[in-house]
Write a structure and sequence with these properties.
Blueprint: E1 2-6, E2 9-16, E3 19-26, H1 37-40, E4 47-52, H2 71-84, E5 91-96, H3 98-109, E6 114-120, H4 134-142, E7 146-147, H5 150-157, H6 168-177, E8 179-181, E9 187-189, H7 193-202, E10 218-224, H8 230-239, E11 243-248, H9 255-258, H10 260-271
């Protein structure tokens, strides 16, 4: 792990060794960068991977201002990380859920920054979609944040939605890296529920849906047939000028966590 200063905060960046050109990987809301471990380990390509913890997540700094958690904040971090790594224009990137939305925001803000991207169930939809996310915010605030041990956290979270459908390695990665050790011997979530709630409440403030036609990058749009975003992913594909669409059978919204092998194969083929 290394740290990258971004404006007035610090972003934790995890690096997986490999060859040029590197690929940036941006995770979904509520988890951390190391959730990509099971996917990265299955890639058939040997590119270097850079995976940041999003602001408010993992080991990155956690602004306490709600307005910091719009796509503008996350997308700005995408651009800052790419610049700090001195990636050339036309870089490659992979994003899941909110991480995919951040990549789209970054590319729309600086056209040509990314040439080829994989967008896994991006949270990009018409404005009327976003009020439906408010129950997610309330659940995040009510969620239990402290557990007696990582094993206790795994037993509780692994037996209820959405993690009950996750691949065991994805759950292991989340439990290992998504929790911090406390002085009293217990563990607590690195992404506080209040901050996760801000993402659901403020992510839709920036309208990306109506600007998809401006995207220059080639995009692979990946969704799951059982995902609540499947209809919107198909609409994204129809609006993006240069895009391919894959709908994975028997998959929900948490595609990289549910199906790391299939996700790795799609990413590997796309960037070959």
């Amino acid at each position: 792990m290394r740290r990258i200063p971004v404006a007035d905060i610090s972003i934790a960046l995890w690096e997986y060794p490999g060859d040029a050109p590197p690929i940036l990987f941006f995770h979904c809301t509520g988890v951390c960068a190391r959730i990509w471990d099971p996917v990265v380990s299955r890639l058939s390509i040997k590119n270097r991977i850079h995976a940041p913890d999003a602001r408010g997540h993992g080991d990155s700094d956690k602004p306490r201002v709600a307005a910091a958690y719009t796509w503008r904040g996350f997308g700005g971090d995408v651009l800052a990380v790419a610049d700090a790594l001195q990636l050339p224009e036309g870089a490659w990137a992979v994003g899941h859920s909110g991480g995919a939305s951040a990549i789209v925001y970054a590319e729309l803000t600086r056209p040509g920054r990314f040439a080829r991207v994989a967008l896994i169930d991006a949270i990009i939809a018409p404005p009327e979609f976003f009020p439906t996310a408010m129950p997610l915010a309330e659940r995040s605030r009510r969620r239990r944040h402290v557990f007696d041990s990582r094993n206790a956290a795994r037993q509780r979270l692994g037996n209820k939605p959405p993690m009950e459908t996750w691949h065991p390695e994805a759950l292991d990665a989340y439990i290992a890296h998504g929790f911090a050790d406390r002085d009293d011997g217990r563990v607590e979530l690195k992404c506080p529920g209040e901050l996760e709630a801000y993402v659901y409440e403020y992510g839709g403030v920036i309208n990306l849906y109506d600007r998809l036609g401006e995207m220059r990058a080639e995009a692979l749009v990946i969704t799951g047939e059982n995902s609540y975003m499947v209809e919107h992913a198909h609409r994204q594909h129809s609006h993006l000028p240069r895009a391919e669409l894959v709908t994975l059978p028997d998959a929900g919204h948490f595609i990289p966590q549910e199906k790391p092998a299939e996700t790795a194969a799609l990413i590997s083929d796309w960037f070959k």
